[in-house]
Amino acid sequence: MRSFAPAAVLLVASARSALADFYPGVIATGTMGITNPPQPSLGTMINQTSVARLLSVNSIEDFCIFAPPYMANISDSETFEVAWCTQPRNNARVIPDGTLTGVSFLKTSAYVQVYGYGDFTKLNIPYGDEGGELDPHGAYGSGNPIGGNVTSNITGADENFAEWMLYIDYNQFCLRVCTSANSTYSAAAMCWHELDEMGCGFVMPGNYNYNGTFETCDADVAYPPGWYPTATVDGTTLFSTFAQYYTGVANGQSYTVGDTVTPTAAYFTPSSSNCATTATVSNGIALASLGITSSASGSTASVPKLKFEHSSGGSSSNGAAGSASQIYPVVTFIALLSGFAGIALFH
Ligand SMILES: *[C@@H]1O[C@H](CO)[C@@H](O)[C@H](O)[C@H]1NC(C)=O
Ligand SMILES: *[C@@H]1O[C@H](CO)[C@@H](O)[C@H](O)[C@H]1NC(C)=O
Ligand SMILES: *[C@@H]1O[C@H](CO)[C@@H](O)[C@H](O)[C@H]1NC(C)=O
Ligand SMILES: *[C@@H]1O[C@H](CO)[C@@H](O)[C@H](O)[C@H]1NC(C)=O
Ligand SMILES: *[C@@H]1O[C@H](CO)[C@@H](O)[C@H](O)[C@H]1NC(C)=O
Ligand SMILES: *[C@@H]1O[C@H](CO)[C@@H](O)[C@H](O)[C@H]1NC(C)=O
What pTM value is reported for the model? Predict the structure, then answer.
């Protein structure tokens, strides 16, 4: 063995570790969507008519979500949502100050997850819209929105991640970006995108009792959406998988896939810890003084049927402050699960 100067070795090692060693399926290998800048960058010009579709999910102060470019239900605009960011970045639109009323930013070893409450009529989602689910797959295989891309620097440098999912309606969203994987949990499984009728609380279990607070926490890793442990054999956990019930017609034949019994909750709710709170999330940009008015918030009296059920048991008071560890009870799953693992849905 030859010996190297320690300083040189360290330099090489740190440059490599920032980029390398992602499990297959974690990093996006395709090209960037055509409406997007080539790289994520902070401090781009404010353009509230931008059609850029590049999210960055870096911190509670610096993240983006997709929402419509003009007033439209999510289900009508899935293919052409645009990026809205807390900071001017990625040539995207900025989220007007006062839109967000509570945000929980969770870092885990497998994904980064952001939950938010707010008035998303300011992001062109009509009052009462039940919303929907966005992901990098979609009917055309090029994402919903088409060419939508997601980066995070949570692993040490900006990376384009292949798998993510965003559920958003007029007053709540939840977003998960899968930043690592292993032989048990692929990024595709941990960001599983075919449970669009289930709510945030099921697909991304966690503490939903944060409206009014802005917190950043570490969190344990959830089971992939719809996975339930059934047994442990030779130290390996076996799972059953819930598939959303779906009927459709293909080649003139009707078919049914999925489970007829829909579970009411994820198997367990991961604990979060090391929470730090911030007063609010704000970019301080006076959009009105720049001659930009946010879209009319036209609240109507219609009572929405909410898709985003909060997991029960989360009603304990949420101090959410400082370093208090937050432990949430294991939700016992009682419905019967039939073994439909592995059946693909045709949408
Ligand atoms: C951009 O998104 C498309 C559609 O999901 C994907 O195929 C591609 O790999 C992504 N590219 C980057 C650089 O993230
Ligand atoms: C804002 O974005 C739109 C859509 O991408 C683009 O057509 C327009 O030129 C941009 N405005 C400026 C001032 O760059
Ligand atoms: C959204 O959907 C509702 C219910 O279908 C409909 O009444 C409403 O007009 C839609 N809003 C927009 C802006 O398209
Ligand atoms: C990631 O982005 C945040 C927020 O913009 C920034 O403060 C931080 O320095 C960045 N981290 C890395 C490792 O680049
Ligand atoms: C994969 O990651 C999960 C969550 O971090 C962990 O529980 C599991 O043991 C890991 N599996 C392997 C094979 O390392
Ligand atoms: C969150 O808090 C805001 C401000 O108090 C409130 O207007 C809004 O209705 C709350 N959202 C939900 C979903 O409870």
Answer: 0.81
